[in-house]
Amino acid sequence: MLRAPSKGTREGVLALAVLLMAVYPVRADDWEIHITVDNQYDVYFGDATSTSTFAGGDTTWMDTETWIATGQPANSFLYVPTASDYAAAQGFLAEFINTTQNAVITTGSGIWEVFPAGRYLQQIDPTWPATWPPLVMPTQAEVDAAIAFATANNLWTTPTTLPGYNNNAGPAPWGTRPGFTYDPSWIWYDSGNDPSPNAPFNGFNHAEFLVFRVPNIPEPATAAGLLGIGLVALRRRR
Questions:
Q1: Strand partners, 116
Q2: What is the pTM of this model?
Q3: Where does residue 143 fall: left (phi above 0), alpha (psi -120 to 50 degrees), or beta otherwise?
Q4: E-assigned strands of the chain?
Q5: Dihedral (CA of 100, 42, 131, 190) sign
Q6: CA 159 → CA 142, 175, 201, distances in Å?
Q7: Residue of 236, 179, 226 lying closest to 65 (CA atoms)
Q8: Angle at 115 between CA 114 and CA 118, to 5 degrees
Q9: Which of 120, 154, 173, 229 is the most buried (most CB within 10 A)?
C-alpha cells in the first residue's frame, strides 16, 4: 500500500531543494555568435513557443557579423528567422559559442531544425500574403506566430546541407567566409520543388520565410542529480 510521505520527510526534501537552489542557481550563459545569411536574418533566444531576447540581425550576406548575447537561460531555444531574394544563391552559415560552458553549436550539425513558414502563411494568419515577398524579414510578432503554429502542429523538420558546403571548402558562390573558427556548413530548407543542381542553395523560393532553431539547449544535470541523491538519502533515513 502506498503511503504519503511524512511531514518530516516533506520538510526535509523542501529544505534540500532550497539549499541546492542556493548552491546551484539556475545557470545563465553568455554567447558569442558568428553568422552570415544570404540574404537576411535575425537571431533570437526564447522558449518552445515564442522568442524573447533579440540578439542581432543583418540584411547583407557579404559580411560575417559577430553578436554577443549575455545572461541567457541555459535551457533557452535558439531561433534564426531568414529571408532571401529567391535569386542567385541563398544559405545560412553560423557558429554559436557558449563562452560560459566552452561549447559550440555550428550550422550543419544534427541539432538544428527548420520550419518553412511559407507553406502555411494563411493558415498561420489569414491576413498574411499567400506568397511571402522576397527580401522581407518577418517581424518578431510574425516569427512568434510561426513558431507557435509549427510547435502546435509538429511541423519542425531537418535542414538540408550538401557535401562540400562546409565553409573551409569554399563553396560557390560564397567562397570561404572570414570570421569562423569551427568550420560550419551552409544549411537551408529544400522544398523539393527546385530541379536544379545543388538545390536548395540555388536561388529559389523554398516556402519562405524560414525559421531555423536549436530546441531546448540542455542544462547540466548537476543540481538535479544531487537532488536525486538527497531524496534517496532521506528515504533511507526514514
A1: 210
A2: 0.82
A3: alpha
A4: 28-38, 40-46, 51-58, 65-73, 77-83, 91-98, 103-106, 113-116, 210-214
A5: negative
A6: 21, 21, 12
A7: 179
A8: 135
A9: 120
